[in-house]
Each structure stands twice: as structure tokens, then as C-alpha cells.
Amino acid sequence: MTPKAECEVLMKEVLAFAARMLRDHGEFHPFGGTIQRDGGPALVSGWTGECFPPAADVLQVLTDGFRREAATGDIRAAALVINVST
């Protein structure tokens, strides 16, 4: 699969989950998705140790994790998904 096709699979996965969360709960905490080394998609959350952490803390955990995994080659792509109102 091409990198573009992998990214399209990743976007489809994260957008479907975000839509489901909005439909069922009206909101969601930041989360992410990755394309693993084997090419498979995975949804991921960022655990800070708190039950209701600030979104910025969750984003930092996710970003740090994505950077670590990219540096070791464990992931090939990553996406961050954030619920915002404008």
C-alpha cells in the first residue's frame, strides 16, 4: 500500500471514531491514530494518570508518544484528533 493510501485509511478510521463519539456523547477527549510498522491502523488514547485531564495534557502525551514511536520506526504515520467548537 502506498503512503498516501495508508494515510487515507488512517483518516477514515479516526474520523469514523470521532463521528461515533460525537453522535453518541456529543463530545470527545483528544485521541489519535497510527499506522503501525506492519501497515495496520490503530486508535490510541493518551493516559495522563488523571480521570479528567486538561486536553492540552492529553495532546502532549500523544505527541510525545508519536515522536518516540516514529523515531524507533514503530509507526509509519500518526494523526491527532481534537474536538473544538468555533
How are the SSEs ordered, and which strands pair?
Elements: H1 3-25, E1 31-36, E2 41-44, H2 55-72, E3 75-81
Antiparallel strand pairs: 1-2, 1-3
Task: Describe the protein in words.
By secondary structure, the chain is of the alpha+beta class. The chain has one domain. The protein has two helices and three strands; from the N terminus they run αββαβ. It has helices at 3-25, 55-72; strands spanning 31-36, 41-44, 75-81. It has a three-stranded antiparallel beta sheet, sandwiched between helices. It starts with a helix and ends in a 5-residue tail after the last strand. The model has no long low-confidence stretch (mean pLDDT 95).
**Series of secondary-structure elements, N-terminal to C-terminal:** HEEHE
Work out the count of structural domains.
1
Helix/strand-derived category reads alpha+beta
Radius of gyration: 13 Å
The low-confidence runs, each spanning 5 or more residues with pLDDT under 50, are none
What distance separates the N and C termini?
A: 36 Å
> What value does the average pLDDT take?
95
Record field, number of beta strands? 3
Oligomer: single chain
Largest sheet: 3 strands, antiparallel
The proportion of residues forming helix, as a percent range, comes to 40-55%
Residues in β-strands, percent: 15-25%
How many helices?
2
- The general outline is flat
Sheet with most strands: strand arrangement:
2-1-3
